[in-house]
Amino acid sequence: MKLLLVGSTGLVGREVLARALAHPGIAEVVAPVRRVTVAHPKLLAPVVDFDALPEQAAWWHADAAICTLGTTLRAAGSREAFRRVDHDYPLAVAKLARSHRCSTYVLNSALGADPHSRFFYNRVKGELERDLGELGFDSLSLVRPGLIGGRRTEYRGGERAAQVALGILGPVLPRAWRINPAERIAQALIESALSPSPGTRIVSSDRLT
To answer: How far apart are CA 190 and CA 104, in angstroms?
Structure first.
């Protein structure tokens, strides 16, 4: 399999990349990035501008695509910037991959994704899921984690406090509310790409604990 991975430098993306490079069933990983990162014999990491993606690049042709792109409102600086990273970029990647005959798309979405949500974050995630569903992929997997557990390169104080609280309360909470380790999310994304289900499939947070 040839796998296209976008968002390979984030918490979940790094886990997906490591697993993909180690997996014997994946022969090549294409991971477009903003700046050069790691090197590996199975990895092609073209440096791109996500605001001006190269539409005719041959590496768009892949068997499956995994998207783990995402940011926070605080890091983005505005709602417009957040929407660009969490909606526009993943959708642009999906359109280009589909135009190059990619049949499977796997998205790291979020618990509560709903295009009609009154919460901006959930609404953007839901709008992306809806728009991806209109592109005609043979298989579309929507992985919806809750709070993601793991060590990030940037500090997120509120998220860290929530992780501590949920870590203490985890045993008595419903499974859907528990911390979802980045490793479990990455494994679900990889499995969805390697064994695609026809149509649209949702992987809920209670399956990622």
So the answer is: 12
Sign of CA dihedral 43, 47, 53, 54: negative
Please indicate, yes or no, whether the overall pTM of this predicted structure exceeds 0.90: no
User: Number of structural domains, the chain?
Assistant: 1
Q: How far apart are CA 68 and CA 182, in angstroms?
A: 11
Structure tokens at 72: 């926070």
Q: Which helix (H) or strand (E) holds 44?
A: strand 43-44
Q: What is the CATH number of the domain that holds 15?
A: 3.40.50.720
pLDDT tens profile 100-140: 999 999 999 999 999 999 999 999 999 999 999 999 999 99
SS3 content of the chain, % helix, strand, coil (to 5): 40, 15, 40
Q: Which residue is associated with the tokens 């979802």?
A: 180
CA nearest neighbour of 68 among 128, 155, 130, 138: 128
The span from the CA of 56 to the CA of 18, in Å, is: 27
Alpha helix (H) residue ranges in the chain = 11-22, 73-76, 79-83, 89-99, 120-132, 157-169, 182-194
* Domain range enclosing 76: 2-207
